Amino acid sequence: MGESFPGRLGALLQFNKRRRFAMYQEEVMVPIGDWAKTRLSRLSDTDKIRDVSRVGSGFGKNISNWIGRDKAYPTNVLHLATECNNKNHSAAFPEELPQWFIKLFTKPSDTVLDPFMGSGTTIFAANKMKRNAIGIEIVPEYYDMVNSNCKKKESYLLEKGVEYASVANQ
Ligand SMILES: C[S@@+](CC[C@H](N)C(=O)[O-])C[C@H]1O[C@@H](n2cnc3c(N)ncnc32)[C@H](O)[C@@H]1O
Q: How many domains does the chain have?
């Protein structure tokens, strides 16, 4: 995510190991709203057939299937408050952000990995949503903070006190 100033957009990149991957779009559907009345009253020819994604993911959509529905897929811009509850990390995410992606890509009991855990927003969100969570963090103080705040089943400190500057100078 980019700089988190009010009204500013940040880009989110998604990387997948395989072309086909789990995605539960129905979990993040939004109320269809009034815009749909206009959109669905002017369907193009492409809207009436299954328009297959050009990236080869196998996903596709047929807009005419939305007629009569009260929920639709969201756009690819998420509108979230930039405030977050955790003031002990300079770049903490608002919890809604990981929540949205956890809903989209996982089911309860799946495992969420955050390789840049920071203050643990993703880990806490995942646990609340009944997912397993693994966090990796290079700064021991953040590790300790998350470790003392989460109801964990297991936690590991994989490295003890490595001085990266001195290792780099060898
Ligand atoms: C943008 S912050 C993550 C903030 C987090 N999402 C939150 O809500 O608090 C990135 C975190 O990655 C950690 N980090 C940077 N390089 C790392 C590395 N090589 N391995 C593990 N953690 C790293 C930083 O210490 C920092 O806490």
A: 2
Q: Identify which of 100, 25, 97 has the alpha carbon closest to the alpha carbon of residue 58.
A: 25
Atom of ligand 1 lying closest to residue 93 CA: 8
Based on the fold, state whether residues 112 and 51 are members of the same structural domain.
no
For 36, the domain range is 30-72
Which pLDDT tens digit goes with each residue over 114-148? 999 999 999 999 999 999 999 999 999 999 999 89
DSSP letter for 94, please.
P
Is position 17 within any domain?
no
**Does the pLDDT of residue 2 top 60, yes or no?**
no
- The answer to whether the CB of 9 is under 6 A from ligand 1 is no
Q: What is the CATH number of the domain that holds 149?
A: 3.40.50.150
Residues paired with 113 in a beta bridge: 134
Per-residue pLDDT reduced to its tens digit, 24-59:
999 999 887 777 777 777 888 878 787 777 777 777
Cβ atoms of 93 and 1 within 8 Å: the answer is yes
The pick from 90, 96, 113, 116 for probing ligand 1's pocket by mutation, whose C-beta has the most ligand atoms within 8 angstroms, reads 116
From CA 75, how far away is CA 43, in angstroms rounded?
A: 18
Percent of the chain whose pLDDT exceeds 90? 35
